[in-house]
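# step 3/5: fold
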Amino acid sequence: MSKEEFVKIQTCVLKVNIHCDGCRHSVKKILHKIDGVYTTVIDSDSGKVTVSGNVDHAALIRKLNKNGKFAEVWGGIKNPQMKNLQTGNRNDDSNENKNRVVIR
């Protein structure tokens, strides 16, 4: 690794759905195939994946999604279009209003 590459290394923390050891292995395999990824640390219990390397987080998310693994930035960037979404659980107990999504 050259000095220029070392300076460009960044760490990206992603939230990925990991249910079992197979999912964990699959995520690690997908990420290590991406050029510029140096290390991955996967916490299966919380679904937290920490990736270090010279790669953009959008490229990581795109590659994981393409391979069937839902991924997003850990506690970070929210989609502005999703800001207006809210669940429809108002204080009534009727079954028809539970878990519906309201778009404003």
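# step 4/5: annotate
DSSP finds three helices and six strands in the chain.
# step 5/5: archive (pending)
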